[in-house]
Structure formats: C-alpha cells, structure tokens
Amino acid sequence: MLQLLLWALYFLSLYAFIPALISRVFGFRVFKRGRVTSEIALTFDDGPDHEYTPQLLDLLARYQAKATFFVVGSHAEKHPELLRRMQDEGHIVGIHNYVHKTNWFMRPKTVRNQIERTSDVIREATGIRSGFYRPPWGIVNVFDFMNRNKMQIILWSAIFGDWNVKLGALQLKQKMMKKMRPGEVLLLHDCGRTPGADPTAPANMLIALEAYLEVATKRGFRFVDIAEMIKLTEKTPKRSVWKKTIVGAWLFYEKLFHVVFRLKHVGGENSCFHYRVIKYHGEPIKLADNGYLKNGDKIVEMHFDNKMLSNIALQSSSPLATGIKLLREMDQALPELARAVAKDPEAEDARAAYGVTMIHRGADRLGFQVEPLPDGMFARTTRIYLKVLTSVLTNKQRNARGKAKRDSITPHMLLMPLEQLLMFAVNGVDASFNKSVKKPHQEVAAAKSSPTETESSELDSNPSII
User: Fold this and answer.
1) Please, which pLDDT band fits residue 24 given cuts at 50, 70 and 90?
2) Of the candidates 200, 220, 235, which is a domain's last residue?
C-alpha cells in the first residue's frame, strides 16, 4: 500500500506539481510578464457576464484600452454577442476551459476537449480560433506544455483576489496601484459566477479599475492586448545570465544601502526618487540663485530608484536613450520630490538638492545646474563604478563616436537651489520656467581646504545614476 502511495505521489509530481511550479516561478513555456517601456496588459477571466462585461467594455472604450478576455466556454456559449463585441472593439478573446475546473484533476484528453470545445464557441461567435490559453487558477499539467506550438499559455504578473467581494473597491484599488509598472500582466475577473467567487465582486473591480485607468493614462501608460505585449517583448533584448546576476546583486546591495543610510522613499511604489539629508563637503559652488553651496551646508542628496533604472536601461538602445527616458521620469517626479522635501522638517534648512549622475545631458532643461565632479579619489572611484554599471545595465551603442558622446556619459554633479526645487511643489511641472536659467560660471570663494577622503565618502558613498 505504501509503495502504491509513493508511486501516486511520483505521478502527481511529474504530472501536476512540478509543471505548475516551474511555470509559475520560472515562467517555463508560459508568458507572464513583458519587457516594455510603457505598456500594461489587462486580462479578464471567467466571463463573459451579461451584467458586468458590457460595463467593462464601455469602461475600456472610454480610455481607449485594449484587453484580453479569457472566457469560460459555458458562459461564452450563452453570450456570443459579447464575444463579437470584444473582437469588434479590438480586444482578444482567449480560452479558459469550457467549465472552470482545474487541469490537475482532469485527464489530458479531457483537458484537450475542454480547450477545443471553448475554441469552437469562440470561432462560431467571432469567426476565428483563439491562440491564447489560460488554465483555471493558472495550474498546468505536463501535457499542457505539449500544446504550446498550437496555443500560447498566458499566466500573469499580478493577481489581486478581486473575486472576493469582501476585499472592497478601495483596498482593491490600493493593491492595483502598487502594480502600475511597464510589462505588468494584470489578472482581474469580469464574472463572479464560478466556484469560490462572489457574484457581485466584479462591481468592485469596475470601480477600482476606473481609478487605475485614470491614473495610469495620465502617467503615459498604454493598455495593450496580450498579443501586442508579446510582440513588443520579443523585440526587447534579454540580459545574459551573468548580467542578470550582477544586476540582482547590485539591487540587493542597494536595498542594504537604503536601510543603512536611511534613505527616504518618495511617493508610491512607482516613484523614481529616494533622498537623504546630509552635509555637503567640498569646494564652494556658485548656484543658479547667485548664492553659494559651501562646505558644511545641508543638502538633499537625490538617488534614482535603481529598479526603475534597471528596467529603463534594459529597454533602451544606448546609454543616451536611457538618459532621455530618465529625464522624462524625473520631469514627472520632481513635483512629488518637492512636496516630500517641503514636508520634511529635517530638510528645512537645506541649501540645495544634489546628485551625482553619469547621464546628465538635458538635465539643465529641468532646471538643474550641471557641474563637473571635482577631481580626486571620490571622482575616480565614482567614474569607475558608474561606467561599469552603465556597461552592465545598458545596451551598447556601436556607432557612438566622438568626444561629445563620451563626455555625455561621464560623472557630473546636478545641483538645484532648494527654493527652486520647492517651486515644483506649488507649480508642478510648470515650474519648468526655471529651466531657462543660465548656468553660472564656476566662481570659487576664498580658498578653502579640499575635502578629505573621509568627507567625500560621507557625502556620496553610493553615487546613483539620475
């Protein structure tokens, strides 16, 4: 009897547990996240529903958002007009089995029949067969992989439990806002008539989704169907294993740095800035307001979010392209940084905002004063650190030649008088009238001693690309 149980366990492991594990954790033979710059894929399971799916389609149309609907065949059979509307409005219709039952407890032939039967329903309603499949609960068995040439298995990068009406629209919205990032494949439900779901739960989903669409659209995100997300991802180069290892180690180090040096996070999960308030140690620098940043003055030291930087760099064709995208992110995030600094009592007497950057071209248009990093041990180590980092993160620009391009990716300081930064808190991105301020000449006050290596390391022991 024991031997029989062991054989049953081995069979279940090979048939279900191991395929489910490697598909969910490692993405083996499934698609669950894109490598893109500004796209998000909305996917909806379990429909169509005669009450909520039409409301959802109306909502998507208002925001010109495309989506992918993984329909249950028995539900779709009752509402072919909704499948036709999905197709007519530019959405993709995918397969979610004929009944909402896990593939673990069905024979391969039964699963195949479930898929084919749903595919027939879709073809009869829309005139085409679907090439996309999402197994219920995302659970695959080993035979599902064998159909990969005929059908792409789609999982997800974010799931919110929106089938539970007790979650509520507000909490659901908060969870969704944390997943407003390029490449996300969001899983939501437009029908609550499956086992374990609440029939009225999609009402909460519609409220939360509308808020999500509004904010994401303002931030420049674009909502695409799963076919376009896959197509865009295939055009984006992958990082090699050694680069992934280096980047992973670097991001882990960054987390430790944030904890040890108590960096303050600005805004939500998708904000691009962190900062800390420290003292400046170095030669006096004339600022745009004709005052000076002097040794011992308090400064707001800016750090770009390096996870966001890593994603942007992966999707850019060169360091300069990375720089352009970073500037766009900074332009949108400066008001949020300004509001955080304005509310921070520790930053009350700060003289200026300060950062060290490898890619600085165009920063003056945001109102920053760009200055060369003073020569010394700190400058040399920073140059090596940032150049290695840039080579790992970004794709090489093979035709980049000339001194101008080389100079554009050398470490520089970015400076902005604090009063000028705080204007962003009031005027938002309209504070960009300060971008026209001309860069002052570097005038040095009375000679002062150069900073020591200890002082330099205290100032910026972890320079980040802004």
Assistant:
1) low
2) 235
